[in-house]
Design a protein that fits this description.
The chain is mostly helical and about 100 residues long. It has one domain. Helix content is about 75%, strand content about 0%. The protein is built from four helices and no strands. Helix 2 runs parallel beside helix 4. The chain is elongated.
Length: about 100
Amino acid sequence: MSWLQETKLLLMGSTGLSKDALHIYVGLAVFLLALTRWRIGSLPPLLVVLAFAIVGEAWDLIDNIRTDVPMQWAGHVKDIWNTLFWPVALSAIGRWTPLLRRGR
């Protein structure tokens, strides 16, 4: 088991969060950090979250191959979906809501 998998298990055990919830929180955290550099509603913060999600899932796939765990493609797609959902929703709100676009 890689250190990434061990870290996920440690986080799940210490916080009581499910794996799905961790994806949601990590996606939001990465998105908010990206917003320190780019504006909400722009594409770069979403691309950062997408890249983070893809790298994480690629790592999971490699770990599955190393440990002879069967591929669970639907689970990987769901993880990417969970990671991206709120960043995409908040970005859309930021792009199309005049109150959040002040200063443009």
